[in-house]
Records
---
Amino acid sequence: MYPKNCWYVACTPDELEQQPLARTICGEAIAFYRDNEGRVAAVQDFCPHRGAPLSLGYVEDGLLVCGYHGLRMGRDGQTASMPKQRVARFPCVRSYPVEERHGFIWIWPGENALADPADIPYLEWAESPDWAYGGGLFHINCNYQLMIDNLMDLTHETYVHASSIGQKEIDEAPVRTRLEGDQVTTSRMMESVKAPPFWQLGMEANGLDPNADVDRWQICRFTPPSHVLIDVGVALAGCGGFDSAQDVRAGSIVVDFITPESETSMWYFWGMARNFKTDDVQLTEQIRAGQHTIFSEDLEMLERQQRNLSDNPQRELLKLDIDAGGVQARRMIDKMLQQERSQAASALSTCEAHAS
Amino acid sequence: MYPKNCWYVACTPDELEQQPLARTICGEAIAFYRDNEGRVAAVQDFCPHRGAPLSLGYVEDGLLVCGYHGLRMGRDGQTASMPKQRVARFPCVRSYPVEERHGFIWIWPGENALADPADIPYLEWAESPDWAYGGGLFHINCNYQLMIDNLMDLTHETYVHASSIGQKEIDEAPVRTRLEGDQVTTSRMMESVKAPPFWQLGMEANGLDPNADVDRWQICRFTPPSHVLIDVGVALAGCGGFDSAQDVRAGSIVVDFITPESETSMWYFWGMARNFKTDDVQLTEQIRAGQHTIFSEDLEMLERQQRNLSDNPQRELLKLDIDAGGVQARRMIDKMLQQERSQAASALSTCEAHAS
Amino acid sequence: MYPKNCWYVACTPDELEQQPLARTICGEAIAFYRDNEGRVAAVQDFCPHRGAPLSLGYVEDGLLVCGYHGLRMGRDGQTASMPKQRVARFPCVRSYPVEERHGFIWIWPGENALADPADIPYLEWAESPDWAYGGGLFHINCNYQLMIDNLMDLTHETYVHASSIGQKEIDEAPVRTRLEGDQVTTSRMMESVKAPPFWQLGMEANGLDPNADVDRWQICRFTPPSHVLIDVGVALAGCGGFDSAQDVRAGSIVVDFITPESETSMWYFWGMARNFKTDDVQLTEQIRAGQHTIFSEDLEMLERQQRNLSDNPQRELLKLDIDAGGVQARRMIDKMLQQERSQAASALSTCEAHAS
């Protein structure tokens, strides 16, 4: 189950450069394209004529032309024209609220009337010149909540990412989970430790001694439906950790936008934003490649965990302190789902009232 | 749903050259082979001994020898012999009426008693020395009726085959659909147009100026259950079009035999017959290769259209004038299905009458 | 259906050398590993924390450490420890009786209390220095009983293995099937025949004239649940066949341990044990490679036979004299299944008696 009345990341602008994009989001098969004014549009990937996928077509005069028989679909899901045909009574297909913002295309797969672009989270690091960003996309065959669990409990770094960002002290540092408004925060501080390989690289890039003792932080922030932004980094030991001055630290934000495809698959947009050496394009690429390698290590674990859970649906999982972040996130999602259901139910009873 | 009491193309003779052929047709798993008199036989691909596929065996003395334990199957589905065994009471397997004619092997997957080889369509171009033929086979994961729709509405050439046989004028020419006996004909005439690349090739091959203005024709003829033969070609403008003399035209017959495998997959035998330069083997191969490329362009569209329809079973499709050929063909097929059902029902009530 | 209260071969020691092994046996997903004392352990491949597959982890201090968040699983299915956690009340997972013996790892997928290592068959050829052994493993998508049928009726050698061990005389020699205690024996003797290619190799390796007339034997011995050991070989004609002296014969034991994975797939441990030229490592490898090639010839037949049976569940198969070995084996298995069901039922009624 996934909430539908909310904004998800659908794709990145580069994915729309050559041709329309077919992507299923929250069970909805959607064709994305950019019209002639450069605005992104999203319509059901289903031609009302004969059911062909509109995404196999092309864009002309700002319309999505079906690649089978030339029906021209408007961004509102209404057929605009078709050679030699009167289209006024053609049935429409769904169109979806869609916004391009902060370097991503955002989609609202639920009820159109409820979509408010103001609800798209503001991403300071995507807008400010003080930040650089690099990222990528994985398709993973697991429920999106398993990915949220993964990111809200970084204990797994010790085991899954032992050779890059994992270290024994993660396990040993207590985890602290807080609920503030619609945000769940799980944080861990490790004092006077050695930096793991990935952060030694970061310190060197920032002109610091990679072998120095450091204070390390991990602050995972979940906001619904499935965004996880994680402050991570190290500072020379005793200088104030997360709150230390720029010249004694190397830090960044791990960016995770998680978009359900189906109950057992999802799109994972990952990346890293940093506010040091932002002009160093090579460093951006080096970090991106490193993150790609590290995050790939989670894939088999997540997909086989999903298979285990699908094969053992009756089995209850443990909810330990380290799982508190994921557990709180799930509660928040459950509340959204319940709200959507009761909205739908009241809409239904209104209909019934009209009908009777 | 597919009619079973009718002749379908099962395979081409070259497919039986080396060894028996396993092919599923209308849901029936069938082993095809050529006996020692050269006659093609078709039996259920199931050894009555232990269920091994007979198609993995070999032919000896005109019998299909099971490759597992040596049972020798006759073309009538009765076991002929087995080493050291008395086979008289072995249960039989289904045998299928099968005929080799006009360069194809034809199968009747329904009730054997109803099969009459005289119902196999006569193919003039396959028998006459005035014609040359080249073709191929695709396996496509879509219902066979989607392929009929495709061929009975060539509007799609403008979009799917834009670089070879498509041209804007197809869209603009009105389409005319007629029902004559058990044949549906959909035709389009385009007057004084430029020939598209494929037909420029045809004109050149026929000694005509490829840049001349032409009249172009497309006459699609559907006959049940799923044969579509299409007269296509161009003639110098004003010379009579389809009815013009041989020396001012380049024309051919697009051959389409469509055989259901399952509800969502099918075998597509395609080819082209032409009555000019029939001795030019290289031209035959060139046309075959070109047609292979062009017809390949339909595959993704058809398979994704099928997935869209499977995912949206409740959705009704439009029936425009350009769809009239496919719609009429569907009606004809539906009538056949209804007839088969009522035959089966009356057969059943006869049985019941006997039983009571 | 497969009996679960019995010992199956799970894997070979080399499969546990590098890391834990994930293998599904009789529908149970199991993680196998070797603890620090060298003892093999087998637990459900499911971490009680969050459902991760334990087989993706590693072994430390004799415990299987979950590769996701570091839970340490004991060989008894009880969590031994987890960083910063009290684990006493963690739910346990299944552990399985497992034994390393005769060069194989044996598993008891059923009720733990009933497992007695004394029931593991004694394999003389695996323990005695007078024997050499080489073998391999196939995963085959068919029910395990089809493999037993295959091995208990070597008629198929004539057809499936025509170029190596098959020969016409197999078909012609009568087959004799006996039931002795919990063993089914099917045997065939061929007198004064030419050795087939594989056995010509064997005779040469043993210093005999490969073109001499021989007496050939095949004695297939099935014991439940699914072990088939086959005495095979040739001796110079008239010297006593299977009972002849070592210097006029070449013989060996074909080893077949068949382990169900699911209703339609299985693990097939095959090999050959011989008591001549046992020091010749190259010969062992040559035989192993030859057997690999020969046994590979069965795969397509078995998998397509399975598909045929799955598609035709209503169809009854023949039970000829040549099938008697397989039929008797099936009866023995059916008796075991019935016994397991009645045990389960009586256990249930005991529970109910307690409850009321």
Note: Chain C has two domains: 8-118, 132-335.
---
Amino acid sequence: MTGTLSPELERIVAAAAAAAPAYAATAPADRARAIVAVADALEGARSALVEIGARETGLTEARLNGEVTRTAVQLRLFADTLVAGAHLDVRIDPADPDFALGVRPDLRRLLIPLGPVINFSASNFPFAFSVLGGDSAAALAAGCPLIVKAHSGHPELSDATARVAIDALAAAGMPEGVFYLIHGREAGVAVLQDPRIKAGSFTGSIGVGRLLADIAAARPAPIPFFGELGSVNPVFVTAAAVAEHGEAIAAGYVASVSGSAGQLCTKPGFVFVPEGGALEAGIAAAAAGTPEHRLLDPRISRSYEERRSTILGTPGVRAVVEGGIRFDEQGHGWATPTIVTVSLADFRAGHAGLIHEAFGPLSILVEVPEGTDLAALVPEFFEGNLSGTLHLGAAEAAGTAEHVDELRALVAALSQQVGRVLFDGWSTGVAVTPAQQHGGPWPATSNDSSTSVGTAAITRFLRPVAYQNAPAAFLPEALRDDNPLGVPQTISPAGESQGWGGRWR
Amino acid sequence: MTGTLSPELERIVAAAAAAAPAYAATAPADRARAIVAVADALEGARSALVEIGARETGLTEARLNGEVTRTAVQLRLFADTLVAGAHLDVRIDPADPDFALGVRPDLRRLLIPLGPVINFSASNFPFAFSVLGGDSAAALAAGCPLIVKAHSGHPELSDATARVAIDALAAAGMPEGVFYLIHGREAGVAVLQDPRIKAGSFTGSIGVGRLLADIAAARPAPIPFFGELGSVNPVFVTAAAVAEHGEAIAAGYVASVSGSAGQLCTKPGFVFVPEGGALEAGIAAAAAGTPEHRLLDPRISRSYEERRSTILGTPGVRAVVEGGIRFDEQGHGWATPTIVTVSLADFRAGHAGLIHEAFGPLSILVEVPEGTDLAALVPEFFEGNLSGTLHLGAAEAAGTAEHVDELRALVAALSQQVGRVLFDGWSTGVAVTPAQQHGGPWPATSNDSSTSVGTAAITRFLRPVAYQNAPAAFLPEALRDDNPLGVPQTISPAGESQGWGGRWR
């Protein structure tokens, strides 16, 4: 991998780099209008796009229609976010002659766009984590030109979606060069290595994510690389939860494991339950009649079949829901959910073979003896994860149960290891909101300083710059005293620096 | 480098890891009190510490006393910052049944401490960027146990400072294991590679910084590494500025280049001035009689002597202030400032040999023909830098000069390349304030998402976690509705999601 660009890629990267200053300088309201126009155009092209997507991915039209809506709403939410301007983190320190360390100059700081970004899109969300997905929305809202590397699982849909974006951005008056689509891993790597590219984002496997993160880090000038990688999303169900709402838990679990054929990074992979199998009948009943679902592509299908066999063949593992996978003549696998159970002792013994993500509709119940230190299981078995979940009984949730301190310790252990801690719900279904966190320590992500879902993702493509004693004529609008953009400004008034820290004596 | 720890290092890293949950859980006011107690203890030990520092580094007692004050104020400022709680970026999305994408769960997000941090301290600021410097203050304030790798240039001072910190933290009731000092690069690398360490920080050379950044990125579980590396800090002086206040510019320039013998990462390395040498007499007059100053150590002294000879020997380079360096019997170099001038054409021709940082009291004037496109010089000659500076005339600053657009283009070019853009001042002297930005694109830093001076640095040692539908009994205090800590909470009320983006049509 040399980083040398083909003439076509050179043209694209040069155009993105040339567009960067003009795009960064667009008025926030104009950029917001352009992004909303893209969202509207996406919904306008909905039926044609969903038809291509269903053919290329095997996902249902209902699911894909929902994803189009989600993707459009996501774009509009980022449009609002960029105009509100809180993400600029504007800080103003007026000059202070009485500053504790001598005269303080006038200092004003904000976040500015990094420059051209490459986004490697995902296979399993052909809209929401693909050409116009969350990473793309965040980069465009931040003010960065974007080059999207299409996922090979839906090339035609990627082209059609990119066409929607390019046309809508041009019609909205955005600079040429703000949006490109490229195909092929080699092309993606070459662009990632180009010095004009200032950040990368990715959703996919740990293996590919690590490869790309290493490339980004090894460049002569390293750049941030935000990879959202693998996750197995441990769940803990207490005895009280089983007793009080076991049936609902069983139904929710099966729905979460089988939705989209389990091909979601937030699928609950391991559920720690009390010994005794009290949930098993409910799980079997809920799973009965789940229709078979095509997996995304033949490679994923074969990989799933292999993982499933390994897990079923591990000593101590017993099927609660057998499920299965059959292959059609195109090599596509069609799967029904498989749910197995194993004792904690056998899980501990077979853990090396069981712990890795099974991408598809399979999940593992781990039966835990009464009195087990649940908090200790988290670091024993898990690295970083996108989510961790607890199902509690009513007294436990109210904090009045006798063992509430043990449960608090479990919550603390999970928050050390995951990006999102859920109570009495399922981790699939990630709301796009300001407070969402879709991330977590390695290997859930390659960079855990941000999120890949929700508006906080916009800061991934920004960096801080301060202006010292700048005349008003040279200040960015967001930093001016008259604040023409109406963004939040955190002002540290002169004279307040004298008492620093004194009250903590 | 295997990452295997000696028994002593194993004890230290294990203790830091064991202390992490307890330290993260300390009440903010208690942590603030402990940090202020450290600041007070540092000032209490001032005279003994300054005596050791002066002997080990050759820096003057006046400078070191100022640095102790700065370091103590910095600690107290971080104490205030951590209690104020804005750095937690608390976001609360109450549950919303009418959410645009279906029922929105209750989501609450904040930033939590990363865990144990290793900080590699600097040679040139034995207090402010060393054992209790800005990186250390930020990590301790964030709630992360800290292991400091001492700089080999002031080992005795490092030990004495660490003793002050350890005693004060213990007396303030902080958990054991929150603070350690280690010596030796091998030990530092081994700790950086340990999986229990969650972030690294560094101030020093590009070469060492790159080595450490690569180690952090290559770990089985990569971690963020915040290196503040090299910078040459370009300055542009317009003809109007020379005409209106040339004498003050000359005096300020010489003071900025010669202070601390030029051993500052913010020293102005290149000053672009109008052709004609109008500043030269003023510079020579200001430099006359500058006393010689010992450089930090023999290695830096030899390296400076070599850089100085290379620069003086480059075709077209002429000394404005000759200066010099002599060596004492211990091998320490004693330098007086050297300021040279070169035409833009000769600079362009000899640029490969001239452009790298000369760590010491040397700076280069570049004489620019009238009509030169100044903005174009920035990307032609410079990579990322900590700062860039403009000196303007009054009409230019007011924005009424005819060529104001050219100056705006220069400001835009600088802000693409630097962390701080200054007007009519000098980049040495970095105020410790909320709006300060001490960073910049590679190679100014290895990670340009944050700052190494000012309170914004605290976010480097934090990561986000969200809680979904958490019962109040399990929420961190900062996320609770009754907000017992009184931290800023950004609330996205239910019902407001319906209109997203709609007004941008």
Note: Chain A touches chain B through 99 residues (CB under 8 Å).
